[in-house]
Design goal:
By secondary structure, the chain is α+β, with helices and mostly antiparallel strands. The protein has a single domain, classed as STM4215-like. Helix content is 19%, strand content 36%. Strands 1, 2, 3, 4, 5, 6 and 7 form a seven-stranded mixed sheet that branches. The chain is elongated.
Length: 134
């Protein structure tokens, strides 16, 4: 199993932001990255023959890049993270083997500014990882 906190801690290793959050961006500090569970539809990964034969799971993630009042700097920061995800190989998160990162957007999505004028962008992706029974 991979938790949002595990994903947050992994994203910290890229050193893009100053602040990282999982589940909620508490203080809305500038230069922050927030990790959220993305809503998915469908059923759990189940192999023919039963769930116990399934070898992988999928975690759907949405990352909010809450940066500053400069649109260009916000775009650059979001692309730094996006490009790092694109080039990732041989990844383990909290000891769990990641088979594949499927980016669900062609680039970081500009969602405008928050109520204080801070620019934000979103990156959505799915993590395909080795299934465990825990």
């Amino acid at each position: 199993m991979i938790t949002l906190a595990d994903v947050r801690d992994w994203l910290k290793t890229y050193g893009v932001a100053e602040h990282y959050y999982a589940g909620k961006l508490d203080n809305k500090l500038e230069r922050s990255v927030g990790v959220y569970q993305r809503t998915r539809s469908g059923s759990p990964v189940t192999a023919i023959g039963g769930r116990e034969l399934s070898s992988y799971e999928v975690k759907s993630i949405s990352v909010l890049i809450h940066w500053n009042k400069n649109a260009v700097e916000t775009e650059r920061a979001s692309y730094a993270l996006f490009n790092a995800l694109l080039s990732e190989k041989d990844l383990k998160i909290n000891g769990t083997q990641i088979y594949y990162i499927r980016l669900n957007v062609p680039e970081p999505v500009d969602i405008g500014t928050d109520d204080k004028g801070v620019y934000e962008r979103v990156i959505e992706f799915d993590l395909f990882f080795k299934r465990s029974d825990t």
